[in-house]
Write a structure and sequence with these properties.
Blueprint (H helix, E strand, L loop, with lengths): L2 H7 E8 L5 H11 L21 H9 L7 E6 L2 E6 L9 H6 L5 E7 L6 H12 L4 E6 L8 H12 L2 E4 L1 E4 L7 E4 L4 E5 L5 E5 L7 H4 L2 H16 L5 H5 L3 E6 L8 H11 L6 E3 L2 E3 L7 E9 L8 E9 L2 E2 L3 E4 L4 E4 L16 E2 L4 E6 L8 E3 L17 E7 L5 H14 L3 E5 L4 E6 L2 H15 L3 E8 L1 E5 L14 E4 L5 E5 L2 H10 L5 E2 L1 H4 L1
Helix pairs in contact: 11-12
The structure holds guanosine-5',3'-tetraphosphate.
Length: 520
């Protein structure tokens, strides 16, 4: 098969959702479609240890199939499906955001009884701002939930994205009858068992038991309204991330999942060209290239190795191949001992654009690094820096250990495990993270990899705003609204809360306060 054909088959995406919205259940159904597992059953009991294992590992453990903690891939209807895990909630970290740089689309699962929940809004917004195509699945229709119009309006206002209902539900909870599948012009009937019954629109008149039902009639009226007054479907808009196709159903039943998955797989984009220092690189380019979006340290002190996750962007990856590290221009052979992230077997022999490969990292890689073959060396655009939300002052418990302390911080910051800020004059080291787990991992690794016990003093949640150099006036800041510098020396104001931020903006309307989320 040609590179072009291989690339065209790839569908690389992440499922994003609020905890409990149904990500695990949905993933399990997708695995069922891919014949990765034989029977459905709820995958649960996730949080066992302190370092919560992800749902994927639980699936692996319980089902005895080979999926790794971060990526799953399987063939489906001629496509090669790659699903990337985005840790949520307790495991939330910059990795969650960075994973989004390695996917071509996202599936956003929303619990229809709740709508968009505050904690996940930011994650959804990052997708929206990065222009990633978003496909929405409104879950739990088998329960009484909020009105469909209401849910759609919420997505439109919160995410500033057009919605296009691909399916339209008839009732919900006990009155749930199924969905109109607007795309395939058929009614998908919910009968309570696992089978979905498809009735083409043209044959609906043969089903008076359905069409005479008041719930059905009500939904039919709503659908006419959507047809007349709603936005028209435009795939180009979807691919630019400006319109989201919305599907209704129940991951648990399961209902509407197959209709959703089939349509999604057909519509979701194959890998597209990616920006680099030498311009756009086509996925069909003969030369291999890829970038590292995540580095995972082994938590087991007996195995101090790390795994770097590479998203292949062009050409063909082959096991044991020689590559150049874009940052240094140095060529080397990828060790045979690489750990591969793959489908049914634990090693992949080859990979194409869209595939994710885990390689053994002997402490040389950094997040954002480019690996490539070919005469020309280049680097993919830097991964965006995501603003941390929590900040803590870090000191070594034992001052005699300061050498290891600085070395550890330097390396972990470079790796992208945590962000470092310094407070001018005080020389305090302040570390910032998106989620609490990042601090725990940092503390653990400082102890086990660098033999340093650290003390973390929380500053709590802060709102960071980057300042323009010529506008910095140190007298405006104090302990409450603290002024710090990031690694590049940029000044950053850490506001205590929304109120302080607003107050500051009112008092200093001329100052530009840059929210990195808006820039990304
Ligand atoms: P998550 O990975 O996003 O955290 O969600 P997960 O799939 O674990 O689902 C969270 C809960 O919601 C589970 O119930 C699951 O069974 C339920 N759920 C998922 N999809 C649906 C749906 O379409 N309809 C209904 N009614 N429930 C759904 P739980 O009580 O936490 O676990 P369990 O004891 O049922 O396994």
């Amino acid at each position: 098969m040609s590179i072009q054909e291989e690339v065209g088959k790839r569908r690389t995406f992440a499922i994003i959702s609020h905890p409990d919205a149904g990500k695990t259940t949905m993933t399990e159904k997708m695995l069922l479609f891919g014949n990765m597992i034989r029977s459905a059953g709820t995958v649960k009991g996730k949080k066992s240890g302190k370092f919560a294992t992800s749902d994927w590992m639980e699936i692996e453990k319980q089902r005895g199939i080979s999926v790794t903690s971060s990526v799953m891939n399987f063939p489906y209807r001629g496509y090669q499906v790659n699903i990337l895990d985005t840790p949520g909630h307790e495991d939330f970290s910059e990795d969650t955001y960075r994973t989004l740089t390695a996917v071509d689309a996202v599936v956003m699962i929303i619990d229809a009884t709740k709508g968009i929940e505050a904690q996940t809004l930011k994650l959804f917004k990052v997708c929206r701002m990065r222009g990633i195509p978003i496909f929405t699945f409104m879950n739990k229709l088998d329960r009484e939930g909020r009105e469909p119009f209401d849910l759609l309006e919420e997505i439109e206002t919160e995410l500033e994205i057009e919605t296009y209902p691909m399916t339209w539900p008839v009732g919900m909870g006990k009155r749930f009858e199924g969905v109109f599948d607007r795309h395939n012009e058929q009614f998908v009937r919910f009968s309570g068992d696992e089978r979905e019954e498809y009735i083409p629109y043209s044959e609906l008149d043969q089903h008076p038991e359905l069409t005479e039902n008041p719930t059905y009639k009500e939904a039919e009226d709503e659908l006419s309204l959507v047809d007349e007054a709603g936005d028209t479907f435009e795939i180009e808009k979807v691919l630019r991330g400006e319109q989201t196709p919305v599907f209704f159903g129940s991951a648990l039943a399961p209902f509407g999942v197959e209709t959703f998955f089939d349509t999604f797989i057909d519509m979701a984009p194959a890998p597209t060209p990616r920006k680099s220092t030498k311009g756009l690189v086509s996925p069909e380019n003969e030369e291999f290239s890829g970038f590292i979006f995540k580095i995972q340290a082994n938590m087991n002190p007996k195995h101090r190795d790390r795994v770097a996750f590479v998203r292949v962007c062009s050409g063909k990856f082959e096991r044991g191949m020689s590559v150049t590290l874009g940052r240094t221009g140095k060529a080397f052979k990828l060790a045979q001992s690489q750990q591969f992230v793959a489908s049914s077997s634990n090693t992949v022999e080859e990979g194409y654009a869209g595939d994710i490969i885990g390689i053994y990292d002997p402490n040389v890689y950094r997040i954002g690094d480019t690996l490539l073959t070919g005469k020309e060396t280049f680097e993919y655009d830097e991964l965006p820096q995501f603003p941390p939300e929590q900040f803590k002052k870090v000191t070594a418990k034992n001052v005699m250990k300061s050498k290891q302390f600085y070395k550890g911080i330097e390396q972990l910051v470079q790796e992208g495990a945590i962000q470092l800020f310094k407070r001018p004059y005080f020389e305090d080291y302040i570390i910032g993270a998106v989620g609490e787990l990042q601090f725990e991992v940092f503390e653990y690794r400082m102890k086990h990899e660098y033999n340093v016990d650290i003390e973390l003093t929380p500053y709590g949640e802060r709102i960071p705003r980057w300042l323009k150099e010529d506008q910095v006036d140190t007298s405006l800041f104090d302990d409450r609204n603290m002024l710090v510098e990031d690694r590049e020396g940029n000044k950053v104001a850490l506001f205590k809360n929304d109120f302080s931020l607003r107050w500051f903006v009112d008092k200093h309307p001329d100052m530009d306060l840059i929210d990195l989320f808006e820039v990304n």
